Amino acid sequence: MDRTVFSIDGKELRSIALDDTVFGLPINDDVIWYAIQNELANKRLGTACTKDRGEVHGSNAKPYKQKGTGRARRGDKKSPVMVGGGVIFGPKPRDYSYTIPKKAKRLALKTILSLKAQSGCLRVVEDFSIASGKTKELAGILNQFGPAERTVIILKDDDAMVKRAGANIPWLSFLSYNRLRAHDLFYGRRVLMLESAAKNLSGKYGAASGEAGEC
After folding, report:
1. DSSP code per residue over the chain
2. What's 155's domain CATH number?
3. Is residue 91 part of a domain?
4. Within a domain: 56
5. Is residue 3 over pLDDT 70?
6. Is 144 among the domain residues?
7. How many angstroms separate the CA atoms of 134 and 106, rounded?
8. CB within 8 A of 77, min separation 6: which ones?
9. Residue among 212, 192, 211, 174 nearest 3 (CA)
10. Are strands 2-6 and 12-17 parallel, antiparallel or unpaired?
11. 115, 199, 118: which is closest to 155 by C-alpha?
12. pLDDT number for residue 211
């Protein structure tokens, strides 16, 4: 498919051919959900922890005798039914992360890129850099492509100065073409992809990469 390359001023410059095996796939909702759930699970810290009755500090003595008081039988004050006692089946530290097949992950990323391209949310922008690292310069570029909304910029490499310029923009996130995240891509309402990143994506995920048959 052919896409227009825009300048940083929002003007049309030329056309670029995008690989249909990356940007023209049918939408697969299941694999997108699978990849996003995997990323969210891998981000969970799993540090929640409660104490059971064996870990709560306190005496093991009965608060009163077993019989003769007319009250219900009672064990020690660390019992789960007592205020300040242990917790029954409470959470313990655990690892929520798991892995999914690499082909499924690649297919999910390509499907999301196809979804954004087909819905008109994806725009290819000429390569640029922010030498000064100032937010004002990057904000001026973003204003050429519409109002402030959740935006993802796909970079050709790890450009520290561009990321520095966007650090103060809360609705902006950055991705490198070789380190994409399904969650950020899917929920980005606008995706700006640098021209070099578009070419690199076609080379990494396209038919020339030798994995065209995985879909």
Report:
1. -EEEEEPTTS-EEEEEEPPHHHHSPPP-HHHHHHHHHHHHHHH---------TTTS-S--S-SS-SSSSSSPP---TTSTTSTT---TT------------HHHHHHHHHHHHHHHHHHT-EEEE-----TT--HHHHHHHHHTT-SS--EEEEESS--HHHHHHTTT-TTEEEEETTB--HHHHHH-SEEEEEHHHHHHHHHHHSGGGT-GGG-
2. 3.40.1370.10
3. no
4. no
5. yes
6. yes
7. 34
8. 58, 59, 63, 84, 85
9. 192
10. antiparallel
11. 199
12. 57
Q: Which two tokens stand for residue 212?
A: 């065209």
Q: Quick check: is 58 in a domain?
A: no
Number of domains in the chain: 1
Domain region containing 121? 2-32+101-214
Sheet with 151-155, edge to edge strand ranges:
12-17, 2-6, 122-125, 190-194, 151-155, 172-176
Q: Whole-number mean pLDDT of the chain? A: 90
Q: Which of 6-10, 117-121, 194-198, 211-215 has the lowest mean pLDDT?
A: 211-215
CA 109, CA 91: separation in Å to the nearest integer? 33
What is the tens place of the pLDDT at every residue in 128-178? Answer: 989 888 999 999 999 999 888 999 999 988 889 999 999 999 999 999 998
Bridge partner residues of 152 (DSSP): 173, 191
Rounded Cα distance between 200 and 195, Å, is 9
* pLDDT number for residue 209: 61
CA-based end-to-end distance of the chain: 18
Check residue 213 and give its pLDDT: 44
